[in-house]
Design a protein that fits this description.
heterodimer; A: mainly alpha; 7 helices; about 70% helix; about 0% strand; rod-shaped; B: Rna Polymerase Sigma Factor, Chain: A; globular
């Protein structure tokens, strides 16, 4: 039959007892109980054997290059990337140009030739220019 | 908040990092690097993966420096990040590395024998026992595993482990008790 000490809700007390984490007074009280309780003695022995087995598992040392690798990553993150240096200004300029063109197109409507606003003198000059170009075979 | 910083040297260092003091980050790294790597190593059971994850932990700490507030113990925050990364790694699965490490091809940890001149038989026996320990830990559900590792190897108190795992202390104690019961059933026969 399971001892009432182990059946208690706060089983952490026995876990701490086996792990040597209890304060000396509480540990001494449990010492007295375990000494006379076969059920708890068995449990404590197997718990301590399990903890001893876990103790044997040592983690390997951290590799010597750990810090160097980390600082390289940090430095790489703080350094501006090539696209930030070159591509971003180029994209910004292209954006500004596109915006300027857009503004020009929307705010300055294309001039429309209207017959009633044509100056006859200018029309005559234009025709003379066209004739001259034709004669020079450039047309 | 200020009170936490006053009693917690790590939080003070982190606040200096926030102000741009890189040297304080190096101090924090030196102080906690080994514990974080070892915790992650035992979680994922691969030294290479553990170091990769530990690097990510410290990168995240550094990246978060600007918004850092000492509302909790620094190591609680650190282990929460480590746990989060470890759980993600386990969930995403790295079975080849996992199996490789369980098969004992992962560095010198399995050869750490107290006797300076062990016989081949002793060495094989020791390796077999270590393998059993590692498999027993690996068989635990991830949250139980994390709780055992923080309790047994990092010697954290219940309150802190509960905060890392985001559960109540009583829930943590039941979790630990169940985990240790499982381990006891598997490992108690091993008398070192």
């Amino acid at each position: 039959m399971e001892c009432q000490v182990r059946a208690r809700e706060d089983a952490a007390v026995l876990m701490d007892y086996c792990a040597g984490r209890l304060d000396p007074r509480a540990a001494a009280a449990l010492d007295e109980h375990v000494a006379v309780c076969e059920d708890c003695t068995r449990w404590v022995e197997s718990q301590r054997a399990m903890l001893a087995a876990l103790d044997e598992w040592a983690a390997p040392p951290v590799s010597p290059g750990f810090n160097r690798r980390l600082f390289e990553k940090l430095e790489a993150e703080s350094r501006p990337a090539w696209w930030r240096l070159h591509l971003r200004p180029a994209l910004s300029l292209a954006g500004i140009a596109a915006l300027a063109i857009g503004l020009l197109l929307t705010r300055a409507p294309a001039p429309v030739m209207q017959a009633d606003t044509l100056d006859p003198d200018r029309l005559e000059l234009a025709l003379e220019d066209a004739e001259m170009l034709r004669q020079l075979s450039i047309w | 908040m200020a009170a936490v910083a006053a009693i917690e040297p790590d939080a003070k260092l982190m606040l200096r990092v926030k102000e741009g003091d890189a040297a304080s980050f190096e101090v924090l790294l030196e102080r906690h690097r080994t514990a974080v790597v070892h915790f992650l190593y035992r979680m994922v059971q691969s030294q290479a993966v553990a170091e990769e994850l530990a690097q990510e932990v410290f990168l995240r700490v550094y990246r978060a420096r600007a918004s850092y507030e000492p509302t909790a113990k620094f190591t609680t925050w650190l282990f929460r990040i480590a746990l989060h990364l470890a759980l993600n790694t386990l969930r995403d699965g790295r079975p080849e590395k996992w199996q490789e490490s369980l098969d004992g091809n992962d560095g010198p940890a399995g050869l750490d024998i107290p006797d300076r001149n062990p016989t081949i038989e002793q060495e094989l026996l020791h390796r077999a026992k270590l393998d059993e320990v590692r498999r027993a830990i690996a068989a635990l559900p991830p949250k139980q595993r994390a709780a055992v590792l923080m309790h047994k190897y990092e010697e954290m108190d219940y309150a802190q482990i509960a905060r890392v795992l985001n559960c109540s202390e009583s829930a943590l104690k039941s979790l630990l008790f169940r985990a240790y019961e499982t381990l006891r059933a598997r490992l108690a026969h091993m008398a070192y």
